[in-house]
Amino acid sequence: MSHAMTLQPVMIIQAFSFKNEKDRLFGMNTISPLRCRTKVARNANMEKLRNGYLFPEISRLELEHIEKYPNAKLISLGIGDTTEPVPEIIASSMANYAHALSTADGYSGYGPEQGNKALREAIVKAFYKDLQIKDTEVFVSDGAQCDITRLQVLNYRFRLADARYLNTCNARSKGIPLLLGSEVTIAVQDPSFPAYIDSSVIIGQAGDEGGSGRYGSIEYMKCGPENNFFPDLATTSRTDVIFFCSPNNPTGHAATREQLELLVKFARDNGSIIIFDSAYSSYVQDDNCPRSIFEISGSRQVAIEISSFSKFAGFTGVRLGWTVVPDELLYLNGFPVIHDFNRIVSTCFNGASNVAQAGGLACLSSQGFKAVNSLVDYYMENANILGEALSSVGLQVFGSANAPYIWVHFPGSNSWDVCKDILEKTHIITVPGSGFGPSGEEFLRISAFGHRECILEAAARLKTLFL
Amino acid sequence: MSHAMTLQPVMIIQAFSFKNEKDRLFGMNTISPLRCRTKVARNANMEKLRNGYLFPEISRLELEHIEKYPNAKLISLGIGDTTEPVPEIIASSMANYAHALSTADGYSGYGPEQGNKALREAIVKAFYKDLQIKDTEVFVSDGAQCDITRLQVLNYRFRLADARYLNTCNARSKGIPLLLGSEVTIAVQDPSFPAYIDSSVIIGQAGDEGGSGRYGSIEYMKCGPENNFFPDLATTSRTDVIFFCSPNNPTGHAATREQLELLVKFARDNGSIIIFDSAYSSYVQDDNCPRSIFEISGSRQVAIEISSFSKFAGFTGVRLGWTVVPDELLYLNGFPVIHDFNRIVSTCFNGASNVAQAGGLACLSSQGFKAVNSLVDYYMENANILGEALSSVGLQVFGSANAPYIWVHFPGSNSWDVCKDILEKTHIITVPGSGFGPSGEEFLRISAFGHRECILEAAARLKTLFL
C-alpha cells in the first residue's frame, strides 16, 4: 500500500516476459549471459502471483492519470489510507518518548519481542474486557499485514514437513492418516483483502491459478448481497485455516453475532483455525455486530485475532498492531499454537518500534481513546456522505454503516472499466472490486478516508456523473 | 533478544514434553482431550529447534541468578544490547517528526514499503559512496533480523515449488537437471548469529539435527583462530546461499579485503548468493577490512547486504535497518532477485515506522553522523578495556579491535560451564560460545555494550577471578 515508489518494479516485472513456457522454466531468455547469473533457482511461487500487488497497480493508474491531466484536481478514494492528523495527546506522547531516548533514564534498547507489558495490558483492558483474554496472549506487532505473513509461516510449515516426512518415512505405506499428508488448505471470503491470498501464494499454499482468477488450493467463500455477505457454510469445504475479516475490507459488511456463531461452530465442527481480522472493528456502530471474535462462545479453541492501530488511530505510517493467540488453541497433537507463534515472533521479529508502542499506549488512555474515537466518527461521517450521495442517484450501496468503505454495485459491468471510466470523467480514484477476488466483479470499493472537503466534492462529482 | 517477558514461554515449552517419539509425532499425550483440539497438524519444523532461542535462555539464566542473589550487583555483558542514550539531535528529530503528525502539514499515512526516498538516498551517500549502489537498490527495514526471515522466505520458496513441480509434472522422468529439484542449501560461519540457522529451521531448510548440534542440510564453515576466522573454502561445499557476517557476531573478527575477495570469487565460481550481514560495520577500525561487501569487485552479481541502525545508533528498540539487493543479482533463469524481494516486501511488510525513519535520516546528517560515531567510539573503548583486562591475566582474546565483542578462549572447557562459573563467582552475565554453533565450544562471548563504570567494574572482577 504505497505510492509512487512502488510503481517501477511492477512495470519492470510486466516487461520481463519469457517467450514461451520452456524459456520461462529454464531461463533461456536473452536478458543476460549465463555466466552473469547465479545458479540459484527462482522461487516458482513468485511467478504464480497475478501481476502486481493490487495497491501498487492502483497507484500506477493514479500516476498515469496525473500525467495525462496535470491540472485536474484528483481525489483519491482508492487506497484506504488515513488522512487526518494523529490527535495531539498521542503525537505528544510519542514525541516525549522519542525525546527521552536521549536521556540516561529514558533510554531503552531491545524490548520484549511480544511487546511492552503495559501496552499488552492496555490492549486487553480496551478491547477484551470481560472476554477472558490475558495480556500474555497478546502479541504486539508492526501491523496486521506483517502478522498475516508470520501466521502463514506458522501455518505453512506443516505441509512441507509432512511432505518430507512422507518421503523419508514412507508414512503413506504405514497408513498414516491422510490429513497429515494433505496440503494445508485455506479459505478466504470472496471478495477479501488481497494480502491473504498473495502471501499464501508466496508461501506456496495457493496452488495454481488457471486463468480463472482462482487459485486451485484456496476455498473461496462467496460473500455478496444475495447471502447477506456471509458464506453458505453448508457448501463450504473444510479447510485448516479460515481467514475472516469483519468489518470486511472491501465490502464494509460487519458480520452479525448470529453469523459469527455459525462461523465458530463450523470451525469447531471441522477442527479449523479462524484467523479473524478485526482491523476495522472500531468502526462498528451496530451492537449486534461483535468487535472481536472472542465475543463468541467457544472461539478460544479455534480462533486467532489480528488487529491494528492503523485505521483506529491513523497509525498507517507509524506501524502498530497486535495479534491474540489464546492458550486453548491447540494443534491436532495437543501442542499449544501460542508457543510456536511466540517462537516465530522471537526468532523472526524483534518487536514493534518502542516509539510506536508509546503512541499505542497513549491511544488507550482515557483521553487518547476519546480523541481517537472522534477520528473514527469523522471517517464514518464521510462514509455516510458518500453512501447517501450514491444511493440518491439509484445505485445499490453496501457497507458504510459499520466500516469506512462503500461497496457499490454496477450490475453487468466490468469493475476495471467502471473504475477507469469514473477516473476519466470525475478524476476520482476508486478500486475495482475484482481486485479483491472473482466475486468482486461488478463492484467498486470507495474509501471514506479523506479530508471532508474532498469527500463533499467527490460526492458532488459522483452525483453529477450518475444523475 | 529481550528480557523477562520472553522467559515464560521457554519454560513452558520445556515443560511440555512427549513421552516418546510416537507420542511426539501423533500427539497421543494427555494434555487435553481430543475434542478440544483443532485438526490442524503442528509445523514439524518447530520441533526441530533446539530448546529455546539463545538469548531468552540467557535471560532466564540472569533471572535465576537474581533470584538466588537478590543483593548482588549483576553486570550484564550477555545480550548485545546498546545502553547509551541516543544523541540529542537524533532523538529531537524523531520527537519533532512525531509531534508534527498531529498537524495537517506534518501528518503522513502509508509510506513506500521500500522506505522513504530521502532515507534511501542518505543511506547510499553515507555507506555506499563510490560503490555504484543506487537508492532504488536499498530497502529500508525494521531491522536486520526481520529481513533475515524475509530473505529466507524469498529463498525458501523454490524448493517447495520444485518439490511440487517434480510431483505434478514428473519432471524427474523428463530429465530435469537435478539442481532444480534439489533442496536449497545454506552455509553459515561456525560460530554465527543463531537467527540464520533458527529461521532456516523454521522455514524447513535445515534438515535434521541428530544430537550433534549440527543440522544435516547446513554447511558449517568453521571459523577459528587456526584459520584466522576465515573458512577453508577448498573444503567448503557449494551452497545456494552463504550467510556471512563481518565484523562477525560473536567472534568480533572483521574479514580482510583479501578474505572477502576469496569469498566473492568462491560465490561467483559456484553461482551462490552471499547474504552479507554488516550490522557491525561502523565498528571497523582497520582500513584493510571492508565495511561493505560491495567494496569487493564482482560482488554485485552475487551478494545481498543486510545492515542495521541498531548497533550503529543505539536503535535496538527504535527498530530500523536496511537491505541492499543489486539489480545485477540474477536467478539461474536470468530473473532479477530484486523484483521478487520487492514483491515480498510489498506484500509481507508495510515499511518501517515513519518516526524511526525520521530518526535514521537524522543519524545520517553531518551532525548526527558525528554524534553517532562518538557512541561507536565509546563502545570501542569499552571493548578495549575488557580485551586488555582479559589479556593481562593470560587469556587468549579475539575480537575487540573491530567489533564490540570480545571472544575469549578457554581451551578444554565446556562453554556453558565457564559461563555459569563466571556468573556464580563474579555476577557477570556472558554468552557461552557453543550457543553460536559447535565451533563456539570452549569460547565465551563478552559484550562491550554497557555503561563505562560497569565495564570498568566488570574488568576488575574478571581480572581478580583469573589472576
Automatic annotation (TrEMBL), chains A, B:
Alphabetized SUPFAM superfamilies for the sequence: PLP-dependent transferases (SSF53383)
Keyword Zinc attributed: no
Pfam families for this protein: Aminotran_1_2
Swiss-Prot/TrEMBL GO biological process terms: systemic acquired resistance, salicylic acid mediated signaling pathway
Needed cofactors: pyridoxal 5'-phosphate
InterPro entries, sorted: Aminotransferase_I/II_large, DapL/ALD1, PyrdxlP-dep_Trfase, PyrdxlP-dep_Trfase_major, PyrdxlP-dep_Trfase_small
Domain of life according to the entry: Eukaryota
Gene3D superfamilies recorded: Aspartate Aminotransferase, domain 1, Type I PLP-dependent aspartate aminotransferase-like (Major domain)
Domain Aminotransferase class I/classII large per the UniProt entry, residue ranges: 236-461
Record's keyword annotation contains Transferase: yes
A GO term, aspect molecular function: transaminase activity
Residues annotated as transmembrane: none
Coiled-coil parts of chain: none
Keywords: Aminotransferase, Pyridoxal phosphate, Transferase
Family according to the record: Belongs to the class-I pyridoxal-phosphate-dependent aminotransferase family. LL-diaminopimelate aminotransferase subfamily.
Protein name: Aminotransferase class I/classII large domain-containing protein
